[in-house]
Write a structure and sequence with these properties.
There is one protein chain. This protein has two domains: 49 residues, Arc Repressor Mutant, subunit A (Orthogonal Bundle), CATH 1.10.10; 155 residues, Tetracycline Repressor, domain 2 (Orthogonal Bundle), CATH 1.10.357.10. It is built from twelve helices and no strands.
């Protein structure tokens, strides 16, 4: 009888040894919670997987070009970037802030393309033709971005980055037209002749580009003589409208 308690205690100890693996089996639960907390933290960390600000803008451009402006939402951008839905709001405030920063990138890309086209060592008329072709080429390569850049009702033009980039774009156009007129562009005032020339050049190329992107030039293009395309049509149109130097 004296040994019975000892057996009971031994049984208890054996039971505890058997139960121990069961508790050990539950140990993965805490790591799962830890990973969940880490994942949530990484989603809201401003510089997760590099520069999250830039990553969100790259994701926004991808969504814009793939799904159009109608598909560009904060949630869609967060999903594309693989971060929490709160991340875009944290960085840009709202959708207007996001698309405005995205449009600023578009204008900077556009300005670089215009500058490269105007850097060729040719007479002003040929520089103007090169810039016009670069204008259309940029829009063809980035139709979503190009469309966004001119959707003023969706943008906050007072944001410094967008205001600076858009102003630089206009200054480049005004300067290029001024060279052809042998007039100095001014930040504050334009002569009527200079203003009219800017409006004419911009309307001509922007109108052509818009019609092209909307597919409204397809009927014209398919009727062109063999060997002609968008570029030759644009070139012919521009050459028929640029001022020719007086001759004998």
């Amino acid at each position: 009888m004296a040994r019975t308690p000892s057996i009971g205690r031994t049984a208890v100890r054996r039971d505890s040894k058997v139960a121990a693996p069961a508790r050990a089996g539950r140990k993965p639960a805490p790591p799962r919670k830890t990973r969940t907390r880490d994942a949530k933290a990484s989603e809201t960390t401003p510089y997760h997987h590099g520069d999250l600000h830039d990553a969100l803008l790259k994701a926004a451009e991808t969504v814009l070009e793939r799904d159009g402006l109608g598909g560009l939402t904060l949630r869609a951008v967060a999903r594309e970037a693989g971060v929490s839905h709160a991340a875009p709001t944290h960085h840009f405030g709202d959708l207007t802030g996001l698309v405005s920063e995205l449009a600023a990138i578009g204008f900077r890309q556009f300005n670089l393309a215009m500058a490269a086209a105007g850097a060729i060592d040719t007479p002003p008329m040929f520089k103007a033709l090169a810039r016009a072709k670069a204008y259309v080429a940029y829009a063809q390569a980035h139709p979503g971005m190009y469309g966004l850049m001119f959707r003023t009702e969706r943008l906050d033009m007072t944001r410094p980055s967008l205001h600076e980039a858009a102003s630089a774009s206009f200054a480049g156009l005004a300067g290029a037209v001024g060279v052809s007129l042998q007039q100095q562009a001014s930040d504050e005032a334009l002569s009527l002749e200079h203003a009219a020339a800017i409006a004419r050049a911009w309307s001509l190329v922007h109108g052509f580009t818009t019609l092209l992107l909307d597919g409204r030039l397809n009927d014209i293009l398919k009727r062109l003589p063999k060997g002609n395309d968008v570029e030759t049509l644009l070139d012919a149109m521009l050459r028929s409208t640029v001022a020719r130097p007086p001759g004998p």
